[in-house]
Amino acid sequence: MTAGRLAGRRAVITGGATGIGFGVARRFLAEGAAVLLAGPDDAAMEVAATRLLADDPQQMVVRHVDDLSRSGAGERLSATALATMSGIDILVNNAGGGVITATDHHTDDTIRRTIDNNLWTTLNCTLAILPHMVTSGYGRVVNIGAESVRNGLNGHAIYNAAKGGVHAFAVGLAREYAASGITFNTVAPSYTLTPEIEAALADGTLSEEFRSITDIAVSLIPMRRPATVDEVAAAVLFLASEEASFITGQVLSVNGGSSMG
């Protein structure tokens, strides 16, 4: 296996087929980790795995297809990771998404989907994998949160309810398991220009409402640009590494200064 900052480590990355999750997977593999990609879309994960293995066919990339927000999904994910990688050292709770729109445009269905995709996926996966980390006496759990929890970005109230829960969950676990060898932290990106958003901007399929929200998001960033996937992945890598062994219960904002302090 490739030597690196994560050499010999085994990482589960939810939502790892696209966007930030794919960027994290690529960075982890380059640093020597074995990686399990988890999500509901087998075709997308197959494409992602092929792209990741193109760099080094000897790397270990495992695919796990499931709706991670459903009951029992965390246990199935954990079982796959243990069967294929013989252990779990790192969990990146990246799976998310949902409906970004004005609060009065939401329905029961869009609210439920937004909470499920962001909060329930994190709860299910963490609670299922945590006992194995406790047994081994080691673990790094890194959640992908959101800068909008701090700055109240337009159209994000329901999304923030879900991501705010993700932030708070990590803080609570960090204190509860502080002596267990496991750290819990959150990376909170501002608006991030993923390849998927970039493609939608290029072909005109991004809705006017979402385009307006992203324009506002950039206007709130003193650096006057969105984050890149690589910049977010670098923060996740740091918190997942040995270098962050004394950091727990923290939110690391990757936001170009849109909130400070």
Topology (SSEs and partners):
Layout (H helix, E strand, L loop, with lengths): L9 E5 L4 H12 L3 E6 L2 H14 L5 E5 L7 H13 L4 E4 L14 H29 L2 E6 L3 H4 L5 H20 L5 E8 L2 E2 L1 H9 L4 H12 L7 E2 H12 L10 E4 L7
Parallel strand pairs: 1-2, 1-4, 2-3, 4-5, 5-6, 6-9, 7-8
Largest sheet: 7 strands, parallel
Query: Roughly what fraction of the amino acids lie in strands?
Result: 15-25%
Which structural class do you get from the secondary structure elements? alpha/beta
Question: How far apart lie the N and C ends?
Answer: 40 Å
Q: Name the strands of the widest sheet in spatial order.
A: 3-2-1-4-5-6-9
Helix content: 40-55%
Name the average pLDDT.
95
As for the number of domains, it is 1
Shape: globular
Family: Belongs to the short-chain dehydrogenases/reductases (SDR) family.
Keywords: Cell wall, Oxidoreductase, Secreted
InterPro entries: NAD(P)-bd_dom_sf, Sc_DH/Rdtase_CS, SDR, SDR_fam
GO molecular function, one term: 3-oxoacyl-[acyl-carrier-protein] reductase (NADPH) activity
